[in-house]
Amino acid sequence: MNIRIIFSILLVHVGLQSHSQTNMPCVREISFEEVAARFNTHNDKRAPMTFLSGFSVEGDAKSLTKNPMQVMFNPIANVQRADCELMRWDPVTRVWAKFSGNQLKKSSEGSKMFWSAGIDQSGIFALMKEIPLHGETNLHLPEGLTSEEWRYVQPNLGVVCESYSHCQTLLIPLPALSPMAQITMKLRKVGGTVETISHMPMGVLVGDFWKKPDAVNQTWDISFASVK
Amino acid sequence: MRNLKIIFLGVVMGLATSVAFAYAAHVDIGEALKRNIIRCQAVKAGSGIDLTVSNLLHDSVYLEIGSGWIFPTADPSMQPQVVSRSHMICLSEGEERRARLLTLCGNAPGRVVPMGYANFLKPALGKSEMVAMLRELEPYKLDRKNIAQSIVWHYTNGHSMANFHPGNSNMEEYLTAMHVFQVNEPSVVDPGYRIRYRESTNQDAAVFSGASEEIEGHVSFKVNETTNCLVALLDQQGKVLKPLKYVNEQQPGEFELSFNSYVFDLPKGNYSVAVLDKNGMTLGELPVEI
Amino acid sequence: MKKCIVILCVLVTPAFAQEPNNDGFLSFFLRFDDRESKLSAFEEDKLLDYVYDLFLSESVIIELRREGNSFAHDELTAQRYNYFSEMCSEYQLSESTTSIRIVNSRFEEDVQAHARIIYRDPNIQKKVARKEVVFTHPNGWRAQCFDSDAAFLKGAQVRILRSPEELNQLNLLTVDEMGDRLEVLAVVALTLARDTVFPSPVKFHIPLHGMAEVGCMEYALMSNDEYSFPVNGGKASVKREDGLMLWKLDTDRSGVYVIARKAPDSQVIKFVAPYGYAILSGYATSSSPYMSVKAAVSDNQLSASFHNMPEIEHVTCEFTLIDLQGNLCTIAAVPAKMLMNESFLSFLRKKDPVLPENLVAQKGLNH
Across residues B190-198, what is the average pLDDT? Predict the structure, then answer.
């Protein structure tokens, strides 16, 4: 009886394996909204990058290795090809990492120019651009509040930053923040209650942005006066 | 006076006969064999055949062997040899000469003719379209390139343009050959893709393996609104077998994309290369036969 | 078996030819078997690899090495000399272009070789062999190309885009990739039938009426949502030839080609977002000179700048703003000068008179 059960389990296992090996190839777009919800735009040094576009590739690994898929991007106005890199999501470290062959090459199709790279493995990929201006902006929480985790999403720059450390000052690795950017925070009040603030526009939390439109590397005080 | 007339007539006659002889001695190989002006023996050699020709005429012979002449083998399973470059052999009275003719294979599934094979039949001129085509190609010296061999098989074995793979030709040579072919054969429809067949073990372009290894071509498609496009190889049921290209955010317009895919792992049959939008709708499709 | 090995060797040994030297000559070496006056089958095949290059070459030199000074050596050299003479007549190498020389020293590049054949680079020869023609289209443009390419030019279209309307339709931004503004002199849309790509570039002679002689840069435009200029343009010029102002464009494929030069102006115009709003995008346009420039919006979306602007008299602006609730607001066709003098807010007020009073309350600002 035992042997029969083991044998049928083995059969099911082999069947499942063979099924997974002949996975139907599938390529799906990853939008910025999806990145904002599930991922971030940190590179392997945890510096923020600009997300330009993304896609996921699923399929038979062997077939992809033998016949890599060419990914082509239309050149982006005012963006240099050399500043862009194709990166692969590392779900363990939650960063986008370089992989072999991630450099974009110029390729032409008739009279059209593209930037292209070869993909020979499945995964989640994103075209990222380095942010030339480095700096940081501090957001100071009111007394009695600490942040347990936060996520800053700035669509115009294609940036998503996140942190899972407890702090009273949120250190956002960008020199200037947009009032249209949104922040999601898990805040703990002294005494223990945890509250979540979701998708709050920065312009609501920090009204002083408009007073100094050219300010960089500032520390702003977060005010919850207008937040209900 | 009478003597003068005779001398004059003699000179005119002499000139006329010499011109007539000169024309008679300038012959192509078919006519020369028919009129027993020459005797020839073909022997298979590297890159072509060695042709030993003996002049049977009591005069010089200018023997023309134009491109497109076919030397069939006595064994029909072997490759007939198609002359790819015209050659003129000048023979004095009674002279015997040997010349190397560059040849291509005239029957794709035919067996390779071994070196030294001498059992060739009387040469015959190939199809007039092939002769014209080879003549046009001659100045470009492509007769040792795979593309020239593929073009010959188009005429001798009815191969489609899908078999016109560049092979060992560089892009300039290949495009030149294609231009010449398209100018000469405007009615032949280009299927829009090429098949690379497995090379023979000795990389002999004259050996047709018939085993397709890779396809490459262009697929046209129309985009009505900005979308991501996936170029993929599909089976007859429309199932994606291989994703080939992914174009991120393609703006509206009409486009053509190149593709290439290894197909050695696929059984022979009908497939298609399609361009799908992000919802899986077909934007363009190219039927391919592997 | 031996024969098979020889055949295999012949087939697998790649033909070798040296890099052409400065004079465009190539050379290859041949060996005779010991004390033989004929090349081996292997060497003959190698010779055959080149024989048609020699046939078309305008200059062939066959150097034959004398191996020694004895009578026997002289006899062998003479036989080998005859071999090459025969080869020349067999392959109809012209006497006027082929010479056979006897040399006494070994060849440095291949000391074992008995003969060296030097000939003119066949690629140079090929260019000579291909006939060049000038194709004239009924619409007045010409193309200098190879004879075989001319048939593909009949269906080609050369369209010169001139009016601001045509350029607007093209959605042409007049800035290069570095953000520098350009003065566009002419835009040509070239469409080759069946999207042909020529084996080598064709020189198109495009007449540009009503233009002065000018040196400029040539760009093949990149197409995405807007046509924009790649960073690396080639040198170009418009010159008078046969009474016409001609732009000579070298290309092998369809595309939109532009000649332009860097605009000399250097004015920067900066706009700051009104309270409660952020800037999404901005455009500045003018018809004289033709210009369409996208604003550089700061990362924090609170200011937008236009660089390398001309005098702002004829420039109009368009901005798209967003408020904190995500509502969009567009200010279109506003003279730049007016927008600089008045504030954004006054414009918004003109659009929506109720706005200023209710701004704080409606937008939920903690101001």
Answer: 92
Q: Any idea which fold C6-120 has?
A: 60s Ribosomal Protein L30; Chain: A; (3.30.1330)
Using DSSP, state whether B168 is helix, strand or coil: coil
- CATH number for C132-262 (one of 1.25.40, 3.30.60, 2.60.40, 2.60.120): it is 2.60.40
Four-residue CA torsion sign, C18, C21, C25, C30 = negative
| Percent above pLDDT 70 for chain B | 91
Does A37 fall in a domain? yes
What is the identity of the amino acid at C253? R
Among C321, C357, C312, which Cα is nearest to C339's? C312
Are A122 and A46 in a shared domain? yes
Q: Which residue of C11, C49, C149 is in closest CB contact with B179?
A: C149
pLDDT digits (tens, 9 = 90+) for B241-272: 999 999 998 988 888 899 999 998 889 899 99
Domain enclosing residue A168, as ranges: 137-221
On whether the pTM is more than 0.90, the answer is: no
State the ipTM, two decimals: 0.81
Interface test with B, best of C48, C94, C95, C119 (most B CBs within 10 A): C48
Q: What is the structure's pLDDT at B14?
A: 45
Query: Are residues A50 and A106 located together in one domain of the fold?
Result: yes
- CB-CB under 8 Å, A25 with B228: no
CA distance linking residue B212 with residue B197, whole number of Å = 4
Is the CB of residue A99 less than 8 Å away from at least one CB of chain B? no
Boundary (domain end) residue, out of A107, A130, A153: A130
C244 touches chain B (CB under 8 A): no
Cα–Cα distance, C95 to C87 (Å, whole number): 12
Residues in chain B: 290
Best mutation target among B101, B202, B219, B257 (most C Cβ atoms within 10 Å) is B202
- Taking an 8 Å cut-off on Cβ atoms, the answer to whether B46 and C48 are in contact is yes
- What would the pLDDT profile of C111-141 be if each residue is shown by its tens digit? 889 999 998 765 554 444 567 888 998 888 9
